[in-house]
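Regression test case RT-17, inverse folding.

Input:
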């Protein structure tokens, strides 16, 4: 089922098609032809239908988010799920998880320990808490707001060499279609691997005596922020499976086609326009720039022939700046402008890059290592992968060699 964001993107495409029809008629100083009117009316019907679907999907996503929130029962509120219900068991796992963080698994009762311990002797983060952490990531990262995401249950995903789908006109009964097989005669097996992301958090022993509410907030905020920073770097310049990292879209391993700038030390308007128009039109429509802040500062001074700035600052909080009409996202892990450096990217990141999340975040409690400092350590493991799934949807600007 498509998300509300994907439905909004589909609706934006319909609006673009409707605008193209009217602009064509206006440019020729005429009304709509019968064929154009039919197409326009069909788009208008699709627009209305998608708007209704978006409203239903957003309401469903809001309900799902509310259901994932931890339940706080008051003294006068009955236990909705009953003693054997899913909610009760989830609450028991969460309570056991906090006890494991405070005391370590060896000091817990066997029945509580069984709720949160995996086969490797690690503490499993409860699914509802892991969901809350993952839900916080897009607010802290660039790539999770741009790329598509998928949950999997294995350590790798097999991908076949597959070009774009081929279509053709013809009659089914007489087999007159002219189609090109999109699968090579000798397809190769390619894999995207889920890598282990480790983190270390230290908390004071006195802080562990606080309520579960404070501990809950600390875990969500600190875990999500640490993972977000590491993920964004890896999704951009990660060295791939050989380096135990996701494949960065800015690396040669990502396979994204490149566009060479005219100069070695400065970006021009022509370079950025070449980057845009090198991207196929079906991906250009949803295109976005990713550049570091220093490079954005450099292009912020570029003007058109009439002296107007091509870079436009956002007038609304939370909305990105734009350049040549396309959104600009800052990714600080990209290289600064220099000879032969990969300094900017453009394209439809939702179509071009995919993030794979595997459920099963775990924690190890290090009670003795930092005891002299009055601290308890938590070694966190999160499993995530990322790879370029459609290189043709993106383009990278490479500065000219010196």
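Golden output:
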């Amino acid at each position: 089922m498509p998300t509300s964001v994907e439905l909004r993107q589909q609706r934006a495409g319909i609006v673009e098609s409707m605008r193209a029809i009217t602009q064509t008629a206006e440019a020729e100083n005429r009304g709509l032809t019968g064929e154009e009117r039919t197409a326009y009316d069909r788009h208008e019907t699709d627009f209305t239908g998608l708007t209704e679907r978006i409203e239903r999907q957003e309401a469903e996503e809001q309900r799902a988010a509310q259901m994932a929130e931890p339940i706080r029962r008051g003294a006068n509120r009955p236990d909705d799920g009953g003693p054997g219900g899913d909610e009760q068991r989830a609450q028991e796992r969460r309570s056991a998880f906090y006890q494991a963080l405070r005391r370590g698994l060896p000091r817990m009762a066997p029945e509580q320990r069984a709720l949160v311990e995996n086969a490797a002797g690690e503490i499993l983060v409860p699914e509802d808490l892991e969901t809350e952490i993952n839900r916080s990531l897009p607010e802290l990262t660039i790539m999770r707001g741009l790329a598509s995401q998928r949950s999997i249950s294995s350590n790798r995903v097999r991908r076949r060499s597959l070009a774009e789908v081929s279509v053709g006109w013809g009659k089914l009964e007489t087999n007159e279609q002219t189609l090109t097989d999109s699968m090579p005669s000798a397809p190769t097996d390619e894999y995207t691997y889920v890598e282990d992301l480790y983190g270390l958090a230290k908390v004071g022993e006195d802080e562990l005596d606080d309520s579960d509410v404070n501990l809950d907030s600390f875990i969500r905020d600190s875990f999500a922020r640490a993972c977000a920073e590491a993920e964004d770097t890896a999704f951009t310049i990660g060295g791939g499976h050989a380096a135990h990292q996701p494949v960065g879209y800015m690396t040669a391993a990502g396979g994204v086609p490149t566009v060479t700038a005219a100069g070695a030390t400065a970006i021009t308007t022509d370079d950025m326009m070449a980057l845009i128009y090198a991207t196929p039109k079906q991906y250009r429509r949803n295109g976005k720039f990713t550049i570091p802040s220093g490079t954005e500062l450099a292009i912020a001074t570029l003007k058109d022939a009439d002296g107007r700035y091509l870079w436009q600052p956002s007038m609304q909080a939370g909305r990105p700046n734009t350049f040549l009409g396309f959104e600009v996202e800052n990714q600080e892990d990209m290289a600064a402008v220099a000879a032969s450096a990969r300094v900017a990217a453009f394209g439809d990141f939702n179509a071009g890059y995919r993030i794979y999340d595997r459920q099963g975040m775990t924690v190890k409690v290090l009670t003795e290592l930092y005891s002299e400092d009055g601290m308890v350590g938590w070694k966190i493991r999160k499993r995530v992968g990322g790879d370029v799934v459609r290189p043709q949807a993106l383009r990278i600007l490479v500065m000219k060699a010196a």
